Request: fold
Amino acid sequence: MTATPSVERSGTTVSDSDPFLVVEDLSVEFPTPDGPVRAVNGVSYTLELGKTLGIVGESGSGKSVSSMAVLGLHDPKRSTVAGSIRVGGQEIVGMAEPGMRKLRGNQVAMIFQDALAALHPFYRVGAQLAEAYLVHHPKASKRDARRRAIEMLDRVGIPQPDGRVDDFPHQFSGGMRQRAMIAMGLINDPSLLIADEPTTALDVTVQAQILDLLQDLQREFNSAVVIITHDLGVIAEMADDVLVMYAGRAVEYGATKQMLTRPAMPYTWGLLSSVPDVQADTDARLIPIPGNPPSLLDPPPGCSFNPRCAHRDKVPGDLCRTTLPELLPLAAGSKHLKRCHLADPEAVYQSEVLPEIAPDLVEEA
Ligand SMILES: Nc1ncnc2c1ncn2[C@@H]1O[C@H](COP(=O)(O)OP(=O)(O)O)[C@@H](O)[C@H]1O
Ligand code: SF4
Ligand SMILES: [Mg+2]
Reply:
């Protein structure tokens, strides 16, 4: 069974199972000298244990800010988090820091793009892993913690872990540091792992190894994984469900297979067009999305994507420029949701988008 996408109806979520992570109508706002920045705006999703959700979107779309909220990492003095985030049935929004600290690293862990920043440069890798273990296992001995650190380094594929455990981070290669950070994230068997662009800084071969490792570990621990990326190739490889974000909002959401074969709105088409190998098509053209995401201080009225959208003239009147589309099922009862006014996106995709990005597929059809 795949993770069950939820259906958003006026801020509430209907789902037919009881997922481990339930995010409902999440908003995160930062006050700035120029006015409030709403980095995340009414986002909802669900994720079951053993499943992977991919969150995709260009830089600045709110992927990291929304995920940091799941770990309670936003300072209440510098931000406003609204909505609901339930992890294993526990509400995170508004939870006090001591409770949050208990959850963080234990039930929920996060790995980042930059392992060098996540690992302290002056402490040995093993000592940092052992410390992460001891925080949540206060009764364990230092020797147990060290043993656990070596075991985890071994598990993530660090050669000679009982020797490398005493290395400093700078003695590790980039790929090894990333593995060490994954080891640290998983040392307490978290049920939910959030991987924020975990391979962006690595070369392609190491990237593939790290993604394989994440998949293996997920199968072994049956954890729920959120993988954040701007790369739909990574999504195709890893995710059961995909959430596409643009300017702080969910613009498309559904099962990965559906989303990659029948993407239903122009922004997702744009992302797909810039990753031709998702379609495995040698004649595919790489077409970047023109322009830039809007300023969150002064977002355009209507659909946030309208200034960059090549299809807005297919929508009657001035709807795209005046009215924000709701996130709605493609058809009645569908779990594939899209935020776009186009009446028949499938027809536009087949006749205009596919021939551009994947001519092979069109000829086959
Ligand atoms: N502390 C903050 N104060 C003001 N704006 C912020 C803050 N943190 C993030 N933002 C803004 O929120 C938006 C979303 O950021 P982020 O979630 O990091 O994007 P990404 O999708 O690249 O991970 C960006 O426009 C960013 O500038
Ligand atoms: S609502 Fe209009 S502007 Fe927005 S993505 Fe759809 S067609 Fe484009
Ligand atoms: Mg980010």
User: Anything to note?
Assistant: The chain is about 35% helix and 20% strand. The radius of gyration is 21 Å. Confidence is low (pLDDT under 50) at residues 1-16. Residues 22 and 46 are 5 Å apart (CA to CA).
